[in-house]
Each structure stands twice: as structure tokens, then as C-alpha cells.
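Researcher: Structure prediction, please.
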Amino acid sequence: MLHPVIQRFEAQAELLEVQEARASLDDAVVRLAAWIGLAESKLTEDDIAALVEVGGILYREGLRKRQS
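Model: Predicted structure follows.
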């Protein structure tokens, strides 16, 4: 069984497909960075570290996609 949050990711991905949304990995990185910037004062250092790690993964994958 999938984690409930992963199920929400899956549902969102399906909705984006139905909507034919064209958001890219770069868009996700920009949105995540903007949100972290707005919420940083309310987040713990551990929260920030986890979110920055996710952002790094997204950034790396976007860079790989652009280079291929």
C-alpha cells in the first residue's frame, strides 16, 4: 500500500494529465524555492534541509533532462 501522501501525489499527477498541464521540473523547482522562501521563518532546520534535498533532486533531474 502506498503512503497516503504518495497517493496524493499520484492523484495530483493524474489531475495534471487530465488538465494537460505543462508544468515542468523547472517550474516545480521555482515553486518549491518560492514557497520555502515564504515559509522559511516557520520551518525547522530539519524541515528546510528535507525540502532543500527534494529541491536538489528536482534540480538535478531537470539539469539531466536539459543536457540529454
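Model: The two ends are 34 Å apart (CA to CA).
Researcher: Thanks, that helps.
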